[in-house]
Structures are given as C-alpha cells and as structure tokens.
Design brief:
Elements (H helix, E strand, L loop, with lengths): L1 E8 L2 E8 H13 L4 H11 L6 H15 L21
Antiparallel strand pairs: 1-2
C-alpha cells in the first residue's frame, strides 16, 4: 500500500508517497548506518537531481542499496552521480 509521509528538510515541511516496503527498507538502511531516518531522507534529498521528485529519489536509493549488497550508502559513495558514463545507443 502507498502511504503519504511527511518530513522536515532544512526547516521546510514536505511530503512524499511511498509503498510500505520502500519505507521499511529506508528504516533498515538508516538503522544499518546508525543514523536517524530523517537524516537519511535529508541526505538523499540533498543529492537528488533537481528535476527529480523526492519519492522517486527515495525509491532509487533503496534499489541501489539492494542491488549493491555491500551495505554502503549509494548517496555517500556517489552512486547517484553521473560518473561520466554515456548511455548506450
């Protein structure tokens, strides 16, 4: 089920919608990094592309975390950045 969540990021209230499974994984990621969930959400928000929305950025973070399998943070490791790779035509 998709649920609406609220957070305060840099002093501004915002809301986003996430499936329960993504929300649970974000909690797991935050716990594994010994950080508050709000801090993780803020970190993801700070590193998302300006033309993306927060809900999508959170889902992509969870996906990158699950695919990586190493327990590293996709944000702090720069996995959200374009590493100079070009799309295959």
């Amino acid at each position: 089920m998709i649920r609406k969540h609220s957070a305060t990021l840099h002093g501004h209230r915002t809301s986003f919608s996430l499936e329960d499974e993504f929300w649970a994984e974000l909690k797991t990621i935050a716990a594994s990094r010994s950080m508050p969930l709000a801090a993780l959400i803020s970190e993801i928000d700070d590193h998302r592309p300006p033309d993306s929305n927060l809900s999508s950025a959170l889902r992509l973070h969870v996906l990158a975390w699950a695919k990586d399998g190493s327990g590293r943070s996709p944000v702090s490791d720069g996995m959200h950045e374009n590493k100079g790779l070009k799309p295959v035509a």
